[in-house]
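Standup, Tuesday
Yesterday: got the pipeline producing structure tokens again.
Today: sanity-check two examples.
Blockers: none.

Example 1:
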Amino acid sequence: MTMNTMTRALFAAYAYLPGGWRRNVLLEWDATGTLQTVAADLPRAPEGAMRASGPLIPGMPDLHSHAFQRAMAGLTEYRANPTDSFWSWRDLMYRFAARITPDDLGAIARWLYVEMLKAGYTSVCEFHYVHHAQDGQHYANRAELAQRVVDAASETGIGMTMLPVLYQYSGFGALPPRGDQRRFINTPEQLLALIDTLRSARPEHGALRYGVAPHSLRAVSHASLTALLEGLDVMSPGAPVHIHIAEQTAEVEACLATENARPVQWLLDRFDVNERWCLVHATHVDTQETEAIAKSGAVAGLCLTTEANLGDGIFPAHDYLGAGGAFGVGSDSHIGIDWRAELRLLEYGQRLVRRERNVLASPQTPYVADRLFDAALVGGARATGRATGVLAAGARADWIVLDPAHADLAGQSPQTWLSSIVFCERGETPVLDVYTGGERVVAQRRHRDEERLYADYRKVLARLLADA
């Protein structure tokens, strides 16, 4: 096989394709960044094809991110409240959010996305709820802050699903919003107008998709959620819908007290929850809810490092996967930015609860890292609403090149490569290069604009901390 010198192609000695590792794999993609050919078991590298410097695996989607929270990571690790919990952390987070300007948010998001790419996240679902100026007034461009985040993704090279958040109330029963929530508040009509503005200014393409995120059941009503979904389906039928659900026991108790139903049960009883939905932090679910989410086709959005950091609880992953449930992982508050840590902690939580090992393996896939990696790719891609998370024709040309000389890979066979990179925690990252849309955005562990974007981030962080 001879390649035209203009053909976009990469040859890898090993690549992780649907079904597992294959040898001598050729990837070809077009000018839009879409894979056209994925061929395995070739006798030799075609003439003119670039050669990968290590084994290839699909890039991981990050299905839940609050970009601005990257700048406060590590600043709340002290006990300022005798009953320190998610709710006391939230008060600190609100005070931090109140100070961020559009320029700040752009710089924070750009650096965050550099970090994500270096970790091997090639897509991000941005659950974006800081919409307005610091006094709560709308910007002249109502999509000002969301647009800064979309532009940050474009500049750094990460794929994005932008999810503007509907936030109306401070609690169940349509309680009025608090003063420190003023930057978040919209009606369904205002939020749909914001999305329409975004779609006009930054149209969708292979690396960009729009959806919506009702923040949580405590922040919307049945009527407003209905209006939001109906308006979205006029604008973009089938677009992704993400929602925080059952993250805290207090949230479940409040829903029971006001709605006479648990949050997941309430949602499933009233809306057509299906594959377009991502239920983020579905931590506190009973057996019936666990089975119902799995049956619905919705994706459970699990953010293990954040959920551990906030003391949320442990998701019933063993029962959920046993019921055929879909899941993906996200970095959420960005206390950690590494999909490997998310998968590791998912398994370790089950080990600690059940006092067993390799809990989330299956008879079909006895290597637990392989099963979790495969599932997180499928569920994460579904949550993005984009064709990603797989090395196959028609998908986005997003992949990770692993370092074959890394201490956790060298000398091992492909059978244990994923096990080693997920469960070994030492030394530098095994992620060597990262491609999105067929473009190499990380080379030899460095992002193409790393120095400049880190300097911008440091300036913003210095100002925010000086004002604290």
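Example 2:
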Amino acid sequence: MPSADAPVGYVVKRYPRFSETFVVREVLAREAAGEHVEIAALRPTVDSRFHGLLAQVRAPVAHIPHDIRSAERAWSAIRAARADLPGLDAALPELVQVGAVEAVQAVLLSRWVVQRGIRHLHAHFATAPGRTARLASLVTGVPYSLTAHAKDLFHESVDRDALAAVLRDAHHVITVSDWNVGWIRRHVPTAAGKVHRVYNGLDLEELSFASPLDRPRVVAGIGRLIEKKGFADLVDAVTLLRDRSVAIRLELAGEGPTEAALREQVRRSGVTDLVTFHGPLPQHEVHDLLRRSAVFAAPCVVAADGDRDGLPTVLLEAMALGTPCVATPVTGIPEAVRHDRTGLLVPERDPYALADALEALVADGRRRERLARTARTLVESEFDSAEQARSLRALVAGPPARTTRGAA
């Protein structure tokens, strides 16, 4: 077996990925704590821009081949790996239950584990990365863990049997909020004893606090332009405020499949002069936008397909930077945004309540200041990346939790 100072192998779907800064920050935090990390990506990146933060990562990246065009090619790859993987034959009953690409990638990932001396695998998301890490663990005997986020738990496309197997067989399971912990314990009771909440961490030296007392009347909305972010409600709220003669500007940063519909909504509502679409911004420009905004809005909703946010990292970044937040009580958000203490909460899909909250904050600098300072204190105590790294390392070093018996 690999030694205690051997690498931890991170398994991700794509790396680097513009929208997954939480993976980069987590790797950096573990490296800063002295751990050796290596990364295995199951697909090539499709992004054309990247955050400057990537340049700080020391971990080497292996891209696991996925272009399996025929059954013959798949079985050739598996046969070629048998000499390196004495546990392969015993894992074949599991491998033949999945698709050819997933089976071959699991075998190739297993070879990478052996060749690089990986001591522990950690997957981000319980979908393809978690399933592939589980199979590689069966082949190699190297334990795996995973971080479950949101779409990999809640989306209607999730294979519940596969999810239960991935969570059940893990050494331990991380998720990003107490709300998620409760959901997993209810829906996957076989994993109830091994699930832990570890919040996504922030580099607080990078995110210096600035008072929001005298900021201009700008509301920032940042994230992928998809239903679960609730940006349609945000545009409706801006329209309501315009009708009340409340002067604000909305600056939206991100791209995604609802962009055309949002632009049409803005045009139809007659607020084109009040809404700016920035497209996707690198991390430093996201932070600049937050620093010049009076309010950050995160009106998240449960989408029609069941998808929802876990606990958006950009929400925590806003709190760290001193930008007061208006959000909805979806999944883990109330663990950070505590109503009238660290921000304001409004019901989801309620543009009127959202407009009221935005109006209250843009009009009251002292209230913004109070909420922002309390929010920064909470972030410092609960969302520090150094503490995140310590928690993750301690879980790897500990014994595996007992699997709860019973139906998932």
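Quick observation on example 2: The chain has two domains: 8-201+385-397, 218-382. DSSP finds 15 helices and 13 strands in the chain.
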